[in-house]
Inverse folding.
């Protein structure tokens, strides 16, 4: 039988050999009485702080102690060795001299290699090449790595491996590290914006007896002790609006939602959303708050409201463009939604516009597909689509436009060719809400697995009175994509859901 050459087998053999060599070095460290995984570490400066101290002249006589991972091969020049240590703040060079450390300490460097964590203590100086460096007067191994860094530090390019082993991605790819630092700053900036405007951050249940607040399929679980079926939340909306009923006039939550849907560059089954609710406000007030908040977040995180996404320059500075959904559809397809009042007429117009139409689609689904196919990809600059058909998926919780039974006060914000936010003037008439829930429940019995279930407890809350309220949902993952020029949602979620590895 011919010997089949499989690159993955060669890689596995090479990895086993690396691990064997590293294990031998670990055992030698222990034989010399050195703990390769000590309990404590002394650290006086980060890499960035040490470099700053040198520039400020504060470290000329002082000694610093920096700790981090060795990220470059140790370079040997006779009795002088150099390497670079990295921590979250950056990297710094360390120099080890035989005549300073002595034979015994200098020989220990033979047992240290790329990937190990090390602390180095000593004064700072500048080399002949101009690099600020710690002259090691003492060092200690903090953690012995038994596996090599990815691709010998040339970067991790295997996309699947980057997602499954995100720690390697963060080690090898500085851009990945910068992206997730930016994501954290996005969340912090949103909190600052809302906190300074008297919004109260709250937490609502993730496990819910009745899921709701969106059109989506839920994940289902079972509570053994309570002997009841529960669902992972698909939205925080209905619980947050209960708090508005209770008198907490401005509330928000930043948290995970879970929807049992497919994977794509814009969808992950678990994702992070900001939802906020403001009493005595409507969707026009929320529109102004949204554009101001996103611009403030961009400026806070990037220092500018102008970003580049997929080669297009985007300006977040308010005001954003506002256009009705019907006008946007007509602008990009020539289809007049109101002029085609029946499903059959609208389906025919959609087909003539080039949309493949499934026979089971209702009017709401037809409009949704017209928007997602022809309108959404063309909305590069920040744009609010306003006034949605009541049949449009997800409009069940929005208040009608005064004098219009066919439209609700709803907007969605689009940037870079996809949706980043969704908002309503919230429906607070319990009679209307019950009728819409009942209609959805009937659709569910007819086989629509994204139909909104009846929620009697929420109706009861509304019957106690909810003031006029404006609600908002912003996708944190998608906003981070825009601000970091990432084109897949998996690039901004530390541990995205993936299909099972083959």
């Amino acid at each position: 039988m011919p010997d089949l050459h499989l690159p993955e087998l060669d890689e596995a053999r090479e990895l086993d050999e690396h691990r064997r060599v590293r294990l031998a070095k670990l055992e030698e460290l222990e034989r010399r009485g050195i703990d390769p995984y000590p309990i404590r570490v002394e650290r006086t400066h980060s890499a960035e702080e040490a470099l700053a101290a040198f520039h400020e002249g504060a470290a000329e006589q002082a000694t610093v102690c920096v700790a981090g991972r060795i990220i470059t091969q140790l370079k040997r020049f006779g009795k002088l060795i150099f390497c670079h240590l990295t921590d979250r703040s950056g990297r710094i060079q360390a120099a080890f001299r035989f005549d300073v450390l002595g034979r015994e300490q200098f020989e220990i460097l033979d047992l240290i290699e790329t990937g190990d964590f090390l602390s180095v203590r000593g004064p700072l100086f500048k080399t002949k090449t101009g690099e600020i460096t710690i002259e090691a007067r003492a060092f200690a191994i903090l953690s012995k790595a038994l596996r090599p860094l990815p691709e010998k530090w040339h970067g991790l390019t295997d996309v699947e491996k980057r997602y499954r082993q995100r720690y390697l991605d963060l080690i090898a790819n500085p851009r990945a590290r910068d992206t997730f630092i930016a994501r954290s700053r996005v969340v912090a900036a949103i909190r600052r914006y809302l906190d300074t405007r008297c919004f109260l951050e709250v937490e609502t249940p993730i496990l819910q007896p009745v899921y709701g607040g969106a059109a989506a399929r839920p994940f289902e679980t079972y509570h053994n002790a309570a002997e009841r079926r529960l669902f992972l939340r698909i939205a925080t909306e209905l619980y947050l609006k209960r708090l508005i009923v209770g008198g907490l006039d401005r509330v928000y939550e930043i948290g995970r939602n879970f929807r049992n849907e497919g994977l794509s560059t814009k969808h992950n089954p678990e994702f992070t959303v900001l939802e906020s609710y403001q009493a005595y406000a409507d969707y026009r007030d929320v529109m102004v708050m949204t554009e101001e908040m996103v611009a403030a977040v961009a400026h806070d995180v990037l220092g500018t409201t102008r970003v580049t996404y997929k080669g297009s320059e985007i300006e977040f500075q308010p005001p954003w463009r506002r256009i009705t959904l019907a006008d946007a559809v007509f602008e990009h397809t020539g289809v007049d939604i109101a002029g085609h009042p029946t499903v059959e007429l609208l389906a025919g117009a959609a087909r003539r516009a080039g949309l493949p139409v499934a026979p089971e689609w209702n009017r709401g689904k037809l409009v949704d597909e017209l928007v997602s196919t022809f309108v959404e990809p063309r909305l590069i600059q920040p744009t609010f689509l306003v006034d949605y058909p009541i049949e449009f998926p997800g409009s069940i919780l929005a208040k009608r436009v005064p004098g219009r039974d066919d439209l609700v006060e709803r907007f969605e914000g689009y940037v870079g060719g996809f949706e980043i936010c969704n908002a309503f003037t919230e429906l607070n008439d319990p009679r209307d809400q019950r009728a819409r829930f009942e209609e959805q429940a009937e659709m569910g019995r007819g086989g629509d697995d994204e139909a909104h279930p009846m929620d009697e407890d929420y109706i009861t809350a509304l019957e106690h009175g909810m003031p006029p309220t404006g609600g908002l949902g912003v996708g944190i993952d998608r906003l981070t994509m825009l601000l970091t020029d990432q084109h897949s949602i998996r690039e901004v979620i530390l541990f995205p859901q993936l299909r099972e590895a083959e």
Remarks:
- The first helix runs from residue 7 to 31.
- Residues 202 and 253 are 6 Å apart (CA to CA).
- Residues 9-148 form a domain with the OB fold (Dihydrolipoamide Acetyltransferase, E2P) fold (CATH 2.40.50.140).
